[in-house]
Design brief:
Order of helices and strands: HHHEHEHEEHEHHHEE
CATH topology: Rossmann fold
CATH class: Alpha Beta
Number of domains: 1
Helix content: 40-55%
Strand content: 15-25%
Number of helices: 9
Radius of gyration: 17 Å
CATH superfamily: Vaccinia Virus protein VP39
Structural class: alpha/beta
Length: 238
């Protein structure tokens, strides 16, 4: 078990008793996914993530249309993304996996669905297929590029219409990000000892997509309040 896995396994289960609106639930689930860091303007921080999700959904429907019948998330965490999808696609089928048992439980609570599995990302099956197969802020925790390739290929093979990778750490900015974190996080090297991140070139994704006759659209992670955002990218494979 890698050190990141130990951390995620300590995450608690979100409450099933919730009476707030969609945005408030989004914030709670986002915090459970590790986005509960101290920032100068918390309201703007979470609002930007929420607005970015709405932009993401619009882009997805522009690419593949409104006829979306199923969504599967690798590294589903608390289920925040599937919760948002379900609010817009109440008749769709949802599933996912995560290596944190408590977060899988949270995903079941937040979506009301039971198509989730407690397992490693590389253990997902390519069947049954889903219209959208996605992963957000997960690939940087993989142990190696070889592991990431195994997962990405399975995701592409599992997707009927679209494979989405969100918040991929850009290999181009690896040194710059590490130096930035050292400047902004006190005792960074000590706090993050043994907690390495995986950085990937965009060309790595494009080359794998070509093997399946797919094209890729890359977008920026646009959240000025999010420390890592300017060093990351999103990829839509279809």
């Amino acid at each position: 078990m890698n050190n990141w896995k130990t951390i995620w396994n300590k995450r608690g289960i979100v409450s099933s008793q919730f009476s707030g609106n969609e945005y408030e639930r989004f914030c709670e689930l986002k915090k459970a996914n590790g986005f509960d860091v101290a920032v100068e303007n918390a309201g703007r921080y979470y609002r930007t993530f929420y607005d970015s999700w709405l932009t993401f959904f619009e882009r997805v429907t522009n690419l593949i249309g409104q006829d979306i019948n199923s969504v599967f998330e690798v590294g589903c965490g608390s289920g925040v993304n599937l919760f948002m999808f379900k609010n817009r696609l109440p008749e769709a089928e949802f599933g996912g996996c995560d290596y944190s048992e408590s977060l899988v439980s949270s995903a079941i609570i937040s979506t009301g669905c039971h198509g989730f599995k407690h397992c490693e990302a590389k253990e997902i099956s390519t069947t049954p297929k889903f219209d959208i197969v996605m992963s957000e802020s997960v690939f940087q925790y993989f142990e190696s590029q070889e592991y990431a390739e195994t997962v990405l290929r399975k995701m592409i093979e599992k997707a009927n219409k679209l494979t989405y990778l969100g918040e991929i750490h850009n290999k181009k900015y690896e040194d710059e990000l590490i130096q930035h974190r050292r400047k902004t996080i006190e005792n960074y090297d000590e706090k993050y000892k043994g907690l390495n991140k995986l950085f990937l070139h965009k060309e790595w994704i494009t080359d794998i997509a070509k093997d399946y006759g797919k094209r890729v659209i890359f977008t920026d992670v646009d959240n000025p309040e999010y420390l890592n955002g300017k060093y990351e990218y999103n990829a839509y494979i279809f």
